[in-house]
Write a structure and sequence with these properties.
The chain has 323 residues and is an alpha+beta fold. Strand 3 and strand 4 form a beta hairpin. The longest helix has 28 residues. It has one domain. It contains eight helices and twelve strands. Helix 5 packs across helix 7 and helix 6 crosses helix 8.
Length: 323
């Protein structure tokens, strides 16, 4: 899966009366750009704006910029469906409120510099007079992906649907093995373009208190979505601008597992700072474990990543499947 960004150098985030956040980390799916194509999968449009032929001859930074501009000009990528948009905006509002007075310290243009934390919004950043804001866009296709650029984060609807359905499953009163089987089904079907899983497709064997069940789903979904979004924000604000796909490096460090780990930790710490529930973090890694069980050249395995987050945040109440 790609994580491409063009921007700041190494940054520390100073949050008044809060936490010092350092980071790098999460993105499901493949690690390269797909060829430019359009097809229909389960009612979702499967698209890619820039193919390999479009970036021949560009440097890594220029290639990332070409992709980012293409994403921003893609008429299909913008505001999510209402039920997703409400959640995304709520997560971003919490982030802006918690980090609006934060200052980013690092090395910019070869000199020590500091930057106010950029505003972030969906689909556009709020009150972005400085022009440094970050847009979170949703693309209505079947890809199980999320990735970042300097000023843009892309979430693909296929991934949002999987997180939504996995949250519904994880909220049911069942043991680890049964939940694991259900997640196998949800993710496996989605990888084949089938997003039809619902509670109606499983046996009527669960006694559910509807109010409690709905609240569990809400907490799991918001938490999982926040971790994905904050992870990608971590990549953007820390200036991880060149992805492994482009063969790039960041401040002399090749893009790799270290940056992913730092973004994971950034995301978890941001969730603490914003007061969001942590229960969905393990669910995200459980989904990723089914998409890419062994990780990749730039992504550690899901088991390793969840343990890194636990150690960094001293938060122990994650366990669903990754223990």
């Amino acid at each position: 899966m790609k994580c491409i960004f063009i921007s700041f150098a190494r940054l520390a985030i100073v949050v008044p009366a809060a936490i010092l956040v350092g980071a790098c980390g999460i993105t499901p799916g493949h690690e390269g750009a797909a060829d430019s194509s359009t097809s229909k999968t389960s009612g979702l449009t499967q698209t890619s704006n820039v193919g390999n032929d479009d970036i021949v001859g560009f440097s890594s930074a220029e290639s990332a910029l070409v992709e980012e501009l293409a994403l921003r000009s893609d008429k299909y990528c913008g505001e999510a469906q209402d039920r997703f948009a409400v959640v995304i905006k709520g997560i971003l509002n919490r982030f802006n409120n918690a980090f609006g007075d934060a200052v980013l310290y690092g090395e910019g243009d070869g000199e020590n510099s500091s930057h106010r934390f950029p505003p972030v919004g969906h689909p556009d950043p709020p009150d972005d007079e400085s022009g440094t804001g970050i847009s979170v866009l949703v693309c209505p296709d079947a890809l199980l992906e999320a990735y970042s650029y300097s000023h843009t984060i892309a979430l693909h609807e296929g991934l949002l649907l999987v997180i939504e359905k996995a949250s519904e499953a994880a909220a049911l009163p069942m043991d680890k093995a049964a939940l694991g089987n259900m997640l196998d089904k949800i993710v496996g079907d989605a990888q084949g373009g089938d997003f039809g899983w619902s509670l109606e497709t499983i046996p009527d064997s669960y006694i559910i208190d509807t109010k409690v069940y709905d609240k569990k789903i809400e907490n799991l979904f918001i938490s999982a979505m926040a971790f994905v979004i904050y992870h990608e924000l971590g990549h953007s604000v820390m200036g991880h601008s060149l992805s492994s796909y482009w063969g790039g490096s960041y401040d002399g460090e090749p893009y790799g597992p270290g940056m992913e780990t730092r973004a994971d930790i950034f995301a978890a710490n941001a969730m603490v700072a914003t007061g969001l529930p942590m229960v969905g973090i393990d669910l995200v890694f459980s989904i990723l474990d089914r998409i890419s069980p062994d990780g990749s050249s730039v992504h550690p395995s899901s088991g390793e990543r969840v343990q890194n987050v636990k150690r960094a945040t001293e938060y122990e109440d994650y366990a669903l499947l990754m223990e």
